[in-house]
Design a protein that fits this description.
Layout: E1 2-7, E2 10-15, E3 25-35, H1 37-44, E4 51-52, E5 56-65, E6 75-78, E7 81-82, H2 88-91, E8 102-103, E9 116-120, E10 124-126, H3 133-137, H4 139-151, E11 159-163, H5 167-177, E12 182-186, H6 190-198, E13 203-204, E14 214-219, H7 224-233, E15 234-242, H8 255-259, E16 263-266, H9 272-280, E17 290-295, H10 299-306, E18 313-317
Parallel strand pairs: 11-12, 11-14, 12-13, 14-15, 15-16, 17-18
Antiparallel strand pairs: 1-2, 1-4, 3-5, 3-9, 3-18, 5-6, 6-10, 7-8
Helix pairs in contact: 4-5, 4-9
Length: 321
């Protein structure tokens, strides 16, 4: 099967065997997959990954090696972390931080930029009939946005700033807007500001962010300048939620964190069941964020397009969607 392969920082289209699911896993035919900033940062060297990229997907179960035969033929999305269930981290209940985990398209597990992938049955979630394939493809990033509400209490009186209005920032802004908080979104590009305006969200020019003016700041730029901006924007004893992963190191004056008693919160994956419920009830419509669609054979061009400034979600149409 054709795949988008990453090795030694180089992307290529590579023919690889269709995977055979091990015990307890399913073979999933990929219908659509989304390109996210983590994929682009992996290309830059964020993590020394070798294999098929991609972790945002919707697919259909073809076969499985284990129980739950009723899943065959069902549309599914999948949590990206596969766990061992035996390490000390798993045994204390922190499965997503399993010491031996593999991560779809990121750590030691081939991803979704190919016609087929495998995942443990426990990772799969059925897609409600009313949710389109394109909307379902957003389940993973929407869950990541919803994780913020699992970690931080956000009230109507809170002044909240999202720094970055790209792929994930747009979803985060839509999620946070449902709390009724006083929300601003720092948007660099005109196209991003237009997208925010269409969702009745308040765009803020990055040059106009008031220092110390926010109770909670979410950093979603994927740039080193984002953390510096978040430190400036948050009030003393405020909270900064970090949603970005990127290659390289951050240089920052951590004395500000100490002196101003700022809470830093790392935030990664989130609740799939909640995300699917939001999609089913149409609490938000992520399909408006699709910027472009490409067939798998044009996967390299799709990744190049996704890396351009201001581009939102680029979609790979792999199966029939």
């Amino acid at each position: 099967m054709l795949s988008v392969w990453l090795e030694d920082g180089e992307l290529s289209l590579r023919d690889v065997p269709v995977p055979i699911p091990p015990d307890g896993e399913a073979l999933v035919r990929v219908l659509a997959a989304g390109i996210c900033s983590t994929d682009l940062e992996l290309v830059k060297g964020y993590y020394p990954y070798r294999g098929i990229l991609g972790h945002e997907f919707v697919g259909e179960v073809v076969s499985l090696n284990g129980q739950a035969a009723g899943l065959v033929g069902q549309r599914v999305v999948g949590e990206i972390n596969a766990y061992c269930h035996n390490c000390s981290t798993c045994l204390r209940g922190d499965l997503s931080h399993c010491e031996n985990r593999t991560v779809l398209g990121i750590v030691n597990r081939n991803g979704a930029f190919a016609p087929y992938l495998t995942l443990p049955l426990e990772n799969l979630h059925r897609v409600p009939d009313s949710v389109s394939n394109v909307a379902a493809m957003f389940t993973e990033p929407l869950a990541a946005a919803l994780e913020i509400l699992e970690q931080v209490e956000v009230t109507e009186s809170d002044r909240v700033l999202v720094i970055g209005a790209g792929r994930l920032g747009q979803l985060i802004a839509r999620v946070l807007s449902k709390t009724g908080c006083r929300l601003g979104v720092a948007a660099k590009y005109h196209s991003q500001r237009e997208m925010l305006a269409g969702a009745e969200l308040h765009a803020v020019d990055p040059e106009d962010i008031r220092p110390g003016g926010y109770d909670i700041v979410v950093e979603a730029t994927g740039s080193r300048a984002g953390f510096k901006g978040a430190l400036s924007a948050v009030r003393p004893r405020g909270k900064i939620v970090l949603k970005s992963t990127y290659a390289g190191e951050i240089t920052a004056n951590l004395s500000e964190v100490v002196v101003n008693e700022i809470t830093l919160i790392g935030s990664r994956c989130g609740p799939f069941a909640t995300a699917l419920n939001w999609l089913e009830t149409k609490t938000i419509d992520p399909e408006v964020l699709v910027h472009a669609r490409y067939p798998l054979k044009d996967g390299l061009q799709a990744l190049s397009h996704a890396a351009e400034p201001g581009v939102l979600k680029v979609l790979l149409e792999i199966g029939t969607i």
